[in-house]
Predict the structure.
Amino acid sequence: MQKALREVKDHVIVCGIGTTGVHVVEELLWTKRPLVAIDHDEAKLDKLQDLSPDVVPIVAGNAHDDEVLRAAGIDRAIGLVSALTDDADNLYVVQTARTLNPKLRIVSKGVEVGATDKLRRAGADAVVTPSYIGGVRMVSEMVRPQVVEFLDLMLRDKDKNLRIEEVTLPAESSLVGKQLSDSRIRSATNLLIVALRAHDGRFIYNPGPSETLEAGMALIVLGETDQVLKLRAAVAQGFGATGKFPAIKV
């Protein structure tokens, strides 16, 4: 475990492994993203090991304690999810984490809708309120049940492991300046490009083949997780002369 904690980097720290946090961990594992889980209840942390054949790095302790967050590698992390059951605790975690790593992307649970603004002012990049999300889901089940079933099946399909993901083009990518039709992304990965987001924040939905790829542009894609991982590697490493991806371990 200590070796896993020392080696983990570019990971997401999940604070609070309750009814919300455990699903955060499951999704991170399912999409093959590195993580560290924090909770004061060691029994909850131990159960996480049943979710993955590999060791899930864990830290037992209070998530808003500086030393606990440092033990979880907050200086090397790219994100933190605060999924505690009390807004005051989440507020404290957000403030502490933002102080320890100003570049961290922080997503916090908001138990009460009114806590959203406070959590954002404390340093959260995004706040998710389960009661609000639950209400929207119930309406969707009523008015668009086929769409809901499609998304649910997509998330639960263990054979395909389909997700809607984002892949950002670095400035040095060989794809920068090319039109979508010349990028060979579709033929090489079978990923469906749902939208593009330009560096100015503008979304281009259902982009046509003549759209030009720009540095910093985010590609919103639908497809299998392994293919998304390959595309992330390929946008940095480039395609081979044959149009195929270089050998990448996933």
